[in-house]
Design brief:
Shape: extended
Number of strands: 18
CATH class of the largest domain: Alpha Beta
Distance between the termini: 85 Å
Largest sheet: 5 strands, mixed
Length: 658
């Protein structure tokens, strides 16, 4: 759907909610829409004419006009979805051929159309044969040609006869033949990334053709023409120059930033400077400039200089932006690992993060309510700040203050005085600050939104709109933004946090011994307190002061430490006394006496043994010999069963281990 509308476009729309004349629409625009500068732009006039025209975004048009635009857009979409008839397809094909034809062929087709039209007039006054001879004589062609032209327009609508009479392209001559295997061989040799010359490929083909008896082989120019025609321009460019070359031929997407207001969306990127700088610690190297840019106005809203592109450098630049301009709603980063660290974008999934847990703690930007998006690296449409770096290189790297320190963008761009000077960090920082300020305040910007204003003025005009609200960070949030952040484990034996050679301890950390917490601190002052938070909920626990080392023979510090330990233990004792009011003797005294009865435990009784040889105790006579023999047989069978179950021959033998 079309988003930008000029006065003439609105007049052609013919909506009843607008005046019927162009001047009337213009007057209404000047009265009602002129103050919405962020929704007005200048666009070039169609047809290559000089000058420009003013266009208005659909968002500021009356609701009735917006509904009419949406309705007509839907109708156009439905019409486009309807299948085309054979006649429509043929008509489009004819006129497509007309658009591709040369002026010479179109002139010939016009002459043929004149012949057909004259024949139809003469046919009404005489016979068809007489009309053919008459027209042929008038135009100097043969009667057969007249018949052929008539056949070309038979069944064609009168309005489509001109494209139907255009001669088909081609010379009609047969193509030079080439051996099939030889043709495939030279295509494979020529269409590759190394971009060999066609002559060298042809020479190698001749050697192979002579060895294999391949014929015919056309001359080199003829064969090259055949190869180019067979593969095609785009496929050949892809084969020889790669994917990037053909991608550049596709028109770039134009992304309109007028859908935002100031500080609604920003993008960020790091740039490796082309200047050798000496840092305060004595390190010499090419610095990284980390910048944040407002997408709507192009104002650089935050920047920092460092030796490497690391998490803390990004954090400081973002902190400068949020403190001075407010919180953006959306932020665009590329896939740099520092941008997608847990500290900056924790809680946001990205392919640069090897491990991701939905329950992980939110990073600095998501915790402030910012939505982070990923873009393609070195893609100007996704990160307009890359266009800023291009101008920045010329103005900073080649600044007079940096003379002799410029190293060039690559090894082929080194100046004659390469390596003759190194710029001190303080001077380089001043140059960067001055050029960024120049970028923001320079008048006469030609972007569609700026329309001759400076980027700073565009920002101020947008902020001045009554419906623009930029969330601001609290004092506590700003203080936390400037602090480094790490996940640390609290030791079990002595529940303290160790960072480098420093220990940090607080009484509240004891109950978190052996658990991981998040700490925030000022890396420029490692002796200051740590701010400790829970790892998952990001809930504040305490401030942990640094436990600094003391001299071995410092008796004052010894007494101070001993007093602190005593106060610590006394505090715990006092808390215990307040919370536990009963002594153990009082607890024991409250337990009632237990009445119990002595339990009679029966003795273990063995199994009864039946002696088959003596009378029973009750005086029963001994069993008969037959009964005794049966009892012995039953006992022996029982013993064999038991022995078999335990894997022995005799129940008195020890079982064998399996």
């Amino acid at each position: 759907m079309k988003d930008w509308w000029s006065i003439s476009d609105l007049h052609k729309l013919g909506c009843g909610a607008l005046p019927k004349t162009i001047s009337g629409i213009q007057k209404r625009a000047d009265k009602e829409w002129a103050n919405r500068v962020d929704h007005i732009r200048k666009a070039p006039v169609e047809g290559g004419a000089r000058g420009s025209k003013r266009e208005y975004h659909i968002a500021i048009l009356p609701p009735e006009v917006q509904r009419e635009i949406v309705r007509r857009d839907e109708q156009a979409k439905l019409k486009a979805m309807q299948p085309k008839t054979d006649a429509q397809v043929r008509k489009e094909s004819l006129w497509l051929g007309h658009a591709k034809a040369s002026k010479k062929n179109i002139a010939k087709a016009q002459k043929r159309l004149d012949i057909v039209n004259m024949f139809e007039k003469q046919k009404a006054l005489s016979t068809a044969k007489e009309a053919e001879f008459f027209v042929a004589k008038e135009f100097g062609v043969s009667p057969k040609s007249v018949q052929r032209y008539r056949a070309m327009v038979r069944g064609i609508c009168r309005t489509d006869r001109l494209p139907a009479l255009i001669a088909s392209s081609g010379t009609g001559r047969p193509k030079t033949k080439v051996h099939e295997e030889a043709f495939e061989k030279i295509k494979g040799d020529y269409a590759r990334n190394e971009e060999p010359s066609f002559q060298s490929c042809y020479d190698r083909l001749i050697d192979v053709a002579e060895a294999n008896g391949w014929e015919p082989i056309p001359p080199v120019q003829t064969l090259k023409r055949h190869v180019d025609e067979d593969i095609g321009f785009l496929a050949m460019k892809y084969a020889r120059e790669g994917e990037g070359a053909v991608t550049k031929l596709y028109p770039a997407q134009e992304r309109d930033k007028s859908c935002f207001h100031a500080m609604e969306a920003v993008d960020a990127d790091g740039h490796l400077a082309d200047t050798m700088v000496k840092f305060p610690d004595g390190t010499i190297g090419r610095p990284i400039i980390l910048g944040f840019q407002d997408l709507y106005s192009n104002v650089v809203v935050g920047w920092r200089i460092g030796l490497t592109e690391n998490t803390y450098l990004i954090q400081l630049a973002a902190a400068d932006m949020i403190e001075s301009f407010g919180k953006p709603k959306d932020i665009w980063f590329d896939n740099g690992s520092a941008f997608w660290s847990k500290v900056i974008t924790g809680g946001k999934k990205n392919k640069s993060r090897r491990k991701f847990k939905p329950s992980e703690q939110l990073g600095m930007l998501p915790s402030l309510g910012c939505t982070v998006h990923a873009t393609k690296p070195y893609h100007g449409q996704g990160k307009p700040i890359e266009r800023f770096w291009k101008d920045f290189c010329d103005r900073v790297a080649k600044h007079p203050s940096c003379a002799g320190a410029y190293v060039g963008k690559d090894v082929l761009s080194k100046p004659a005085n390469y390596g003759s000077n190194v710029v001190p960090y303080a001077i380089y920082e001043q140059v960067v600050a001055a050029e960024i300020n120049r970028h923001n305040t320079k008048e006469g910007r030609n972007s569609k939104i700026a329309a001759g204003r400076s980027y700073a003025q565009v920002y101020r005009d947008s902020v001045a709109q009554p419906d623009v609200h930029i969330p601001q960070a609290t004092e506590h949030e700003v203080r936390m933004l400037y602090m480094a952040q790490e996940d640390k484990m609290i030791r079990k034996d002595q529940p303290a946090i160790h960072i480098d050679d420093n220990r940090y301890w607080a009484e509240e950390l004891v109950e978190y011994a052996g658990r991981k917490v998040t700490v925030r601190y000022d890396p420029k002052n490692m002796y200051d307190d740590l701010f400790v938070y829970t790892a998952k909920e990001d809930r504040f626990i305490c401030r942990a002061p640094c436990v600094a080392a003391v001299e071995f023979n410092d008796r004052a510090e010894m007494r101070k430490h001993a007093n602190a330990v005593s106060a610590y233990v006394d505090k715990i004792k006092k808390t215990h006394k307040e919370k536990v009011t009963l002594s153990i003797e009082e607890v024991a005294a409250q337990i009632p006496d237990i009445d119990y009865e002595r339990l009679s435990i029966p003795k273990v009784v063995g199994l009864n043994f039946i002696d088959v040889h003596t009378p029973y105790a009750d005086g029963t006579e001994k069993r008969t010999e037959v009964e005794q023999a049966q009892d012995r047989a039953d006992a022996a069978a029982f013993g064999r069963g038991i022995a078999a179950s335990v894997g022995t021959n005799n129940i008195f033998d020890m079982p064998k281990s399996k």
